[in-house]
Amino acid sequence: MEFVVMYSLREGVDRSRILETYPRHKAFYEAFRADGGGLVALGSFQTPDPAAGSMGIFTSREDAEHFIAGDPFVIQGLADPRILEWNVVRFE
User: Fold this and answer.
1) Residue 3's pLDDT is what?
2) Cα–Cα distance, 59 to 37 (Å, whole number)
3) Distance of CA 16 to CAs 20, 67, 88, Å?
4) Beta carbons within 10 angstroms of residue 11's beta carbon
């Protein structure tokens, strides 16, 4: 079981605030991963969707919750996260 965090941008958030906050978000996820956090992948969607601007995949709910708690996008009130359990099937 993996856990997906879906981020939706809060209504009325100006794109310039996202771009201004992104360097802190990037530094956060790089440090999270380097410290052993169970972050598998993350990224934004190229197709605009008000329900899901970006997502991250985590190996545990605890890691997903820990990530959300420290993510500058959430702390700055730019994005609303939700955690979904994902019953992934891999073909590797």
Assistant:
1) 98
2) 9
3) 6, 23, 35
4) 7
pLDDT in tens, 33-60: 999 999 999 999 888 776 778 999 999 9
**CA–CA separation, 60 and 14 (whole Å):** 32
CA dist 21 and 52 (Å) reads: 18
Give 8's DSSP letter: E
DSSP string, 24-92: HHHHHHHHHHHTT--EEEEEE-SS--TT-SEEEEESSHHHHHHHHHH-HHHHTT-EEEEEEEE------
- Residue 48 to residues 3, 5, 52, 82, 88: CA-CA distances in angstroms? 22, 17, 8, 18, 24
Residues 45, 20: Cα–Cα separation, whole Å: 19
Cβ 4 vs Cβ 84: under 8 Å: yes
